[in-house]
Design brief:
The complex is a heterodimer of chains A (251) and B (161). With 251 residues, chain A is mostly helical. Chain A contains ten helices and no strands. Chain B has 161 residues and is an alpha/beta fold. The N and C termini of chain B lie far apart (38 Å). The chains are: A mainly alpha (251), B alpha/beta (161). The structure holds zinc ion. Zinc ion (ZN) binds next to loops of chain B.
């Protein structure tokens, strides 16, 4: 792999890993606050799985750049994170959390299915590993979306409100990253449009069957992953607090 | 000179940190062993069950500690993701031990994980299949929570993967 391809791939891997990490952290905020004990446990598990996926992706990134995954997570400033605003937004109510998880799980599932055939072997292998775990997540969040969408007038209305906010934000997931054409030409990753189309084929009919209306306006607030929502900095401040308090600590 | 068979035997004594009744070999976590007799070195290849499994570094340490007692000067533990770990690899003996431990073994799926979502799960205490999943997520990444209507006890299942 030549240098420009390597840079394009590390840029892409960092973005994917950051999304997993930030969403895992958001979901972990429900621990001790879940509506019922079972859901408390389920979200803690899903957060831990996503954290495991983030770690696999940071390790692939580190193999290309020589960085240390822990340092990337705990000592990187807000400005150099590459997460989407979609995962940064506060956890909101249960409908917001479950809808975001559903939209993300669907995106992850179709992406991993495509990445299993990546020409970059380490990525193809990591994708095959993550995909089966993702099946459990998708089952869980899609079951909740049915309950919420088809449940009561209030649950439907709350989920619809969440969808109106999250649908445009979700579009940022599919904005092609700098120099991604190097990767798509070589079959390392699928083109963003192919990923997005596969995602829409899954989520559009599903949301419709949950009695939810997909907003027509769908432009993400920004196409640039360097521009963050005001919510990322406080999240990182909390997540990084302990590690930064004593950078040399070991356990 | 330590023979390959001795190494596997020693590895078969290294317990799964979360389920101490079964070994890392029985769980299908140990994938390969490479011996370099001249350098008195051994390399063990392991694969994680669930990718967020926090027990991986404990497994690595336990393997190193156990193999050092065989007299190797160098013990290396490598991890691989390929092929991805499958719960189908859990041996018959280990399945019996899981049950004794109170964990229902995972149904076999032959690579089609989806089929396990509808498989009946027998209670590890009374063998009844009059059971219901209460939560597909449990106290660790690899466990789901069930309830048995026959003996009216909750139990856990080692999840299929
Ligand atoms: Zn029973």
């Amino acid at each position: 792999m030549n240098e420009s391809h390597q840079t394009a791939l590390s840029t892409w891997l960092l973005a994917m890993a950051d999304d997993q990490l930030i969403l895992a952290h958001r979901n972990s905020e429900w621990i001790g606050h879940g509506p019922i004990l079972e859901e408390d446990i389920a979200l803690a598990n899903i957060a831990q799985d996503e954290l495991g996926h983030a770690r696999l992706l940071y390790e692939l990134y580190a193999a290309l750049t020589g960085d240390d995954p822990d340092k990337l997570v705990f000592f990187r400033e807000t400005a150099v994170y590459r997460s989407t605003q979609f995962v940064e937004y506060p956890k909101g109510d249960w409908a917001f959390t479950m809808l975001r998880q559903y939209l993300f799980d669907a995106a992850e599932m179709v992406l991993l299915t495509q990445l299993v055939d990546s020409t970059y072997q380490p990525l193809a292998q990591a994708a095959a590993k993550m995909r089966n775990e993702e099946l459990y997540h998708y089952r869980h969040s899609s079951a909740w979306l049915k309950r919420l969408g088809l449940g009561t007038a209030e649950s439907n209305q709350r989920t619809q409100t969440a969808l109106d906010t999250l649908w445009p934000l979700a579009q940022q997931l599919f904005v092609p990253l700098p120099a991604a054409e190097f990767l798509t030409t070589d079959g390392v990753i699928p083109p963003a449009t192919v990923w997005q189309e596969a995602w829409e084929q899954v989520v559009r009919p599903f949301l419709h069957n949950c009695d939810l209306a997909i907003p027509t306006a769908a432009a993400p607030p920004t196409a640039d992953r360097a521009i963050h929502s005001p919510y990322l900095a406080p999240l990182l401040a909390e997540m990084q607090e302990v590690a930064r308090f004593d950078p040399e600590a070991t356990w | 000179m330590v023979k390959m068979a001795h190494i596997w035997q020693a590895l078969n004594e290294v317990a799964d940190p979360e389920i101490p009744v079964v070994s890392l070999v029985e769980m299908g976590i140990v994938r390969d062993v490479r011996l370099d007799e001249q350098a008195n070195a051994v390399t063990v290849v392991i694969t994680p069950t669930f990718s967020g499994c926090p027990a991986l570094h404990v497994m690595r340490q336990d393997i190193e500690t156990r193999l050092h007692t065989l007299g190797f000067s160098h013990v290396t533990v490598e991890t691989t993701l390929h092929p991805p770990w499958s719960s189908d690899w859990i041996s018959e003996e280990a399945r019996v031990k899981l049950k004794t431990f109170g964990l229902a073994p995972p149904p076999r799926h032959g690579g089609r994980l989806e089929v396990t979502f509808f498989a009946p799960t027998a209670c590890p205490y009374c063998n009844s299949t009059d059971t219901r999943v209460k939560n597909e997520f449990g106290p660790t990444l690899c466990r789901a929570i069930y309830y048995c209507h026959a003996c009216q006890q909750p139990f856990e299942q080692f999840k299929a993967l």
